[in-house]
Specification:
Blueprint lengths: L20 H5 L18 H4 L3 H4 L4 H11 L4 E5 L12 E5 L3 H5 L25 E5 L8 H10 L5 E6 L9 H4 L1 H10 L3 H8 L3 E5 L2 E2 L20 H5 L9 H16 L2 H6 L7 E2 L3 E6 L2
Parallel strand pairs: 1-2, 1-3, 3-4
Antiparallel strand pairs: 4-8, 5-8, 6-7
The structure holds S-adenosylmethionine.
């Protein structure tokens, strides 16, 4: 496989079924990447343009990642995107296949290497540690990607992701079950991550702060009005796999329930709950 070659499923099935991992796994090998170089199941040439605006790294989540990286000086960041969570006090090597995402990286950060997790252009044991945030669910061949990350890393591998078994704790499951179903099929289990890394792991729930600055779906657990913004939704790639009808129905239902108090009757306590233990987890290899 050349550096730019990788597994890829279709952008989205013609009948609008979610382009989920289980579905993609049964498809043939296609060794191309999209126009902007996007390598995952989401097309960041389309949805990446406003990503950095809505997905600002959250300092409290960043602190947990930094703690998990321990004393590492050199850090590989795979699926680095616009640079969220890259620690400023370490020597970071970012890897990012999407041109649109690479272009959104601030000038203060190192330019990202155009490569994919499944085929990393680095020698064995090149880095003290590796990190990847909100990315593993998009890799076409998770196991190959994790093996590669392990190969090039001497120390801990730190993965910020979502536990598919915890996704339905979030009220969005009652309004847009298609989005939650899509996420549940895309996010790998902790066991799959452990198998790919070939090492024991520790998985810890990361509480989502009420004023979380990183706009993934659960970040809005206590601020439902924010999810009525179409650009906020599209900054969470699962929304790009459901049809316009789902967006329209969600907007109508949630707007109605906010206007007549139904949402607050059911979930209003979340507006002041300081943090939400949802599906966000930090998975770290044990030394
Ligand atoms: C949701 S974004 C997360 C970006 C950033 N890590 C963050 O936390 O904001 C997922 C990123 O993973 C990248 N990606 C998808 N498939 C990949 C692969 N096979 N190898 C490396 N990166 C990949 C995408 O291009 C995208 O930038």
């Amino acid at each position: 496989m050349t550096r730019k070659a990788r597994w890829r499923g279709p952008r989205r099935p013609a009948d609008n079924r979610p382009a989920c991992r289980g579905f993609c796994d049964n498809l043939a090998l296609v060794i191309t990447r999209s126009g902007d170089g996007s390598a995952g199941d989401a097309d960041y040439g389309t949805i990446g343009a406003s990503y950095a605006r809505y997905r600002q790294p959250d300092a409290r989540i960043a602190a947990r990642i930094s703690q998990a990286l321990g004393g590492a000086r050199s850090v590989l960041n795979v699926g680095a995107g616009a640079g969220s969570y890259e620690p400023g006090d370490r020597q970071v090597t970012p890897v990012e296949p999407s041109a649109s995402m690479r272009e959104q990286r601030p000038a203060r950060l190192a330019p990202a290497v155009d490569a994919v997790a499944e085929d990393l252009p680095f020698a064995d044991d090149s880095f003290d540690a590796a990190m990847t945030t909100f990315s593993v669910h998009q890799w076409g061949d998770l196991q190959a990607g994790l093996r590669e990350v392990r190969r090039v890393t001497r120390g801990p591998v730190v993965i910020l992701t979502c536990d598919p078994g915890r996704l339905r704790r979030f009220w969005l499951a009652g309004y847009a079950p298609e989005v939650i179903d899509t996420e549940a099929q895309r996010y790998p289990s902790v066991a799959a991550l452990r198998d790919g890394l070939g090492a024991p792991v520790t998985a810890t729930v990361v509480p989502v702060p009420l004023d979380c600055t990183d706009g993934f779906n659960e970040a809005y657990y206590g601020r439902p009005e924010a999810l009525l913004d179409p650009a906020a939704r599209l900054s969470c790639s699962a929304w790009s796999f459901v049809g316009a009808a789902v967006h329209d129905r969600f907007t109508a239902d949630l707007s109605r329930d906010l206007a007549d108090g139904t949402w607050d009757d059911r979930h209003g306590h979340l507006r002041t709950q300081p943090a939400f233990d949802g599906s966000l987890i930090l998975v770290t290899t044990r030394r």
